[in-house]
Every structure is written in structure tokens, then in C-alpha cells.
Write a structure and sequence with these properties.
5-stranded antiparallel sheet, 4-stranded antiparallel sheet
Length: about 130
């Protein structure tokens, strides 16, 4: 809009993905995702963070998982976009809160019993 704008502020992304096995087939997960404010192309992103929690129970080949995302409703997709004729300031929470219950079954989870030998040995010898 007739002026020069320096957009060289770096973005900092920090992600922690944690998983703790507490025994008896239970695993607890806790994730924290964060990005600072900073510039990318013609956009200045505003800071955002979120925390996700979950618990998984394994029984044989069955997996039961209960998880919650963005438990504090802090994730957002907010930014300022600069154009030649306008400046758009968008302040938006991401509606990313969710509770999920997942059931999975692992087919053929045992190791293969094939004990072949030397399948590629002739090729190795040839080379």
C-alpha cells in the first residue's frame, strides 16, 4: 500500500510428542504443539498452541484408544495478510477440539515363519 514492509521475522515451531507405557497394556500419550508469531511470504502468522491427550489399551490383537485434541481450545489459524491494496487481519480459532474413540484389530501380527536363505545371494555373487 505504497510502503515497504520488512517481513523477515522467523517462525519457531516446537512440538513434543510423548508416549508413556504404564503397564497392563496401557499407554498414555500427551502432545504439545506450538508456533510463534512470524512471517511467511506475505503473511504474518499469530502464535498458536494446543495440547492433545490420549490413552490406549491393548488386549491381544485389539487396540482401544480414547483421545482428546486441543483440550484448552487454544489452537488457532490467525494471520495478517498484506496485499498491494489491502491488509487482511484474520483472527480464527480452529474448531479443532475433538474426542475420539478408536478400535483397531491387527491381522497377522505374528512374525513371518518364512526362513528362506540365499534368495539374493546369486545376484550378490554375480555382481
Amino acid at each position: 500500500m505504497g510502503t515497504e514492509l520488512r517481513m523477515n521475522n522467523p517462525l519457531l515451531f516446537i512440538n513434543f510428542y510423548n508416549s508413556i507405557s504404564v503397564g497392563k497394556g496401557f499407554t498414555i500419550t500427551g502432545d504439545m504443539l506450538y508456533h510463534s508469531s512470524g512471517d511467511m511470504d506475505v503473511v504474518t502468522l499469530k502464535p498458536s498452541w494446543q495440547i492433545n491427550l490420549g490413552v490406549t489399551k491393548t488386549i491381544g490383537n485389539w487396540f482401544f484408544q480414547l483421545s482428546a485434541t486441543d483440550i484448552f481450545k487454544t489452537a488457532r489459524n490467525s494471520m495478517i495478510t498484506y496485499g498491494t491494496q489491502m491488509k487482511l487481519d484474520k483472527w480464527n480459532y480452529s474448531d479443532s477440539q475433538a474426542v475420539q474413540f478408536t478400535i483397531r484389530y491387527a491381522f497377522n501380527s505374528t512374525m513371518s515363519k518364512y526362513k528362506g536363505r540365499g534368495a539374493g545371494q546369486s545376484e550378490k555373487n554375480r555382481l
